[in-house]
Design brief:
Bound molecules: zinc ion
Strand content: 5-15%
Strand order of the largest sheet: 4-3-10-12
Radius of gyration: 26 Å
Number of helices: 15
């Protein structure tokens, strides 16, 4: 079977063949660290985490680079407003983003370069573009990429410069008047009055700081080489960010990304979620409303090219499904014993699941296969067929592992002190035993009283064929 992925550049689902057999290089545009993340920021990161896990399970060695944009107009403006040094502001929010990635089970990238760590590479790329006649300096000290010098400009998003409105994608800048064409974009920005000295670097063209597009081109080349397999990010990065990255990298003579993947938005009532609309759902807030795997499930369950409408019941629906999945894994593990993680990692996933993932990461279709096996596993539990229970347990866990949602992954273990958990387990077991005796004696009042007392303590009791089970509600 061949892995097929949609390519934004060709607008078709086509076979994926790595440049170097057995290896894949991916560049994912990371966060501009100026404020805490909402789910819209996390969706592309989770989608690429699933892609990476699937490529890895298919036996490919993945190098995933996800940058941190730690110098930028917004970082400077927000840090000034907060009364912090820009680098302190960036470091603060970089940690908040990392906490969100970690909480949602995102495997850390192979490397996570900060833009400010690759300034010499950015200057070298800019010099190369000036030498080749694709960039020019202005009297105000800016360096611009000359879009008219590159006939292929607009190729990624199939737009002609003539058809773009002057505002579309053009940078709003006080120094914009010193460029030749409204769509010329800044490779280097001269310091503006009031900007801190520490936010600019020396170049052959004077002091200043890098433009956002140049940052990603330079870091992609530094860590993945002149030509690499996949470049991606959120849908809104296609233009101008990725168009500009591609133009300057190819104009510099590099092959650059061979494929582009973009992840659709999280919407509320059909509108893209963003802070500016005031409808941002902060990851930190969602994690107080639902366990982390439930939030991840909600973000991962929709195919990455479809808009994800965040409805009032999105989390509740995800919670119901997650409890069904994790409930089976718990019951099956209790019956047949824990399955070692190495065995899950090596297990073959069902053909239907693999076919769905190979079809441009069709996660909803893949989840349908997970649910088929979940039903078979529950049937095997009910029939007491331990061999079948174990087989389905391994299969279900292996499939969920590809989605980063294996319920038995230590990632999702609650970090409660074990002594509290042990003590609570013993006390609830005593209550459940008393309840079982009351039920046996048909003393429904006593049995209900115990159940109510547990409910008041936040403990939910579920009766099953194997006896009563409990969970924190
Ligand atoms: Zn980027």
């Amino acid at each position: 079977m061949t892995l097929r992925l949609y390519d934004t550049a060709t607008r078709e689902v086509r076979d994926f063949t790595p440049i170097t057999p057995g290896e894949v290089g991916i560049y994912l545009c990371g966060a501009t660290v100026q404020a805490p993340p909402h789910v819209g920021h996390l969706r592309p990161v989770i989608a690429f985490d699933v892609l990476r896990r699937w490529l890895t399970r298919r036996g490919l060695k993945v190098t995933l680079i996800r940058n941190v944009t730690d110098i930028d107009d917004k970082v400077l403006a927000k840090s000034a407003a907060a009364g912090r040094e820009w680098w302190a502001h960036a470091a603060l929010y970089e940690r908040v983003f990392t906490q969100a990635y970690d909480a949602l089970g995102v495997i850390p990238p192979t490397y996570e370069p900060r833009a400010t760590g690759s300034v010499p590479e950015m200057v070298a790329l800019m010099e190369r573009l000036v030498e080749k006649g694709h960039a020019y300096t202005s009297s105000a000290g800016n360096v611009w990429f000359d879009v008219r010098s590159w006939p292929a400009y607009g190729g990624l998003t199939r737009q002609k410069i003539e058809d773009l409105s002057p505002e579309e994608g053009a940078e709003v800048s006080g120094a914009a008047a010193d460029k030749k064409n409204p769509h010329d974009f800044a490779l280097w920005k001269a310091p503006k009055p009031g900007e801190p000295e520490s936010a600019s670097w020396d170049t052959p063209y004077g002091r200043g700081r890098p433009g956002w597009h140049l940052e990603c081109s330079a870091m992609a080349r530094r860590y993945l080489g002149e030509t690499f397999d996949i470049h991606g990010g959120g849908l809104d990065l296609r233009f101008p960010h990725h168009e500009n990255e591609q133009a300057q990298s190819r104009a510099a003579g590099y092959g650059f990304a061979q494929r582009w993947m973009h992840v659709a938005w999280v919407t509320q009532a059909g509108v893209k979620m963003s802070k500016s609309l005031g409808n941002g759902l902060l990851v930190s807030e969602l994690l107080t409303q639902a366990p982390a795997p439930v939030v991840r499930y909600a973000l991962a369950a929709v195919q990455y090219r479809s808009m994800l409408e965040w409805a009032p019941d999105t989390l509740q629906e995800a919670r119901t499904t997650w409890e069904r999945l994790s409930g089976f894994v718990t019951r099956a593990s209790e019956r047949v014993g824990d399955v070692p993680a190495e065995e899950v990692a090596k297990a073959e996933v069902p053909e239907g699941f693999a076919a769905a993932m190979d079809d441009d990461l069709n996660v909803p279709q893949a989840l349908a296969v997970v649910h088929e096996h979940l039903r078979a596993g529950n049937t095997a539990l009910a029939e007491g067929s331990d061999a079948a229970v174990r087989a389905e347990l391994v299969t279900v866990r292996a499939m969920l592992d590809v989605l980063g949602l294996d319920p038995a992954d230590p990632q999702w273990a609650t970090s409660t002190d074990d002594r509290y958990a042990t003590a609570l387990d013993a006390l609830v077991a005593a209550e459940l035993s008393a309840r079982a005796q009351a039920r046996a004696a048909k003393d429904w009042a006593a049995s209900d009283a115990i159940r109510d007392r547990l409910a008041a303590a936040g403990i939910e009791v579920q009766d099953s064929a194997d006896g009563a089970r409990w969970a924190l509600s």
